[in-house]
C-alpha cells in the first residue's frame, strides 16, 4: 500500500506542485486583489479563490508533464488491433 502511494506521488509530482502553487496564488489573489463588495463569485471568498487557484495551477503544471514513451506505444498498439 505504501509503495502504491509513493508511486502515485512520484508520477504526479509536477501536477501536485502546480496544485500547491495555485493554492498559494489563489489565496494571495484574494488577499491583495479580492472583491470587497462580495459580488464577485470567485474572489469574494478565500476558499473559492484558493480552490480555483488549485485547479488552474494543477492544469497548468500538468501541461508540462512528459509522457512515458513505453505507455504511449503500448496504448497505440492496443488501439490498432
Overview of the structural elements:
By secondary structure, this protein is mainly alpha-helical. The protein has a domain of 50 residues. Helix 2 runs antiparallel to helix 3. The model has no long low-confidence stretch (mean pLDDT 85).
Question: What separation lies between the terminal Cα atoms?
Answer: 34 Å
**Count of alpha and pi helical runs:** 4
Q: How many strands in all?
A: 0
Give the C-alpha Rg. Answer: 18 Å
Roughly what percent helix?
A: over 70%
Question: Could you give the topology of this structure?
Answer:
Elements: H1 2-11, H2 13-32, H3 46-62, H4 69-80
Helix pairs in contact: 2-3
Question: Could you list some keywords that capture this structure?
Answer:
single chain, 81 residues, mainly alpha, elongated
Offer a concise description of the structure.
With 81 residues, the chain is mainly alpha-helical. Helix content is 73%, strand content 0%.
Amino acid at each position: 500500500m505504501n509503495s502504491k502511494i509513493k508511486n502515485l506521488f512520484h508520477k504526479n509530482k509536477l501536477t501536485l506542485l502546480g496544485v500547491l502553487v495555485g493554492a498559494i496564488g489563489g489565496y494571495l489573489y484574494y488577499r491583495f486583489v479580492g472583491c470587497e463588495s462580495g459580488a464577485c463569485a470567485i474572489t469574494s471568498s478565500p476558499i473559492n479563490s484558493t480552490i480555483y487557484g488549485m485547479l488552474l495551477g494543477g492544469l497548468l503544471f500538468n501541461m508540462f508533464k512528459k509522457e512515458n514513451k513505453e505507455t504511449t506505444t503500448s496504448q497505440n498498439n492496443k488501439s490498432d488491433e
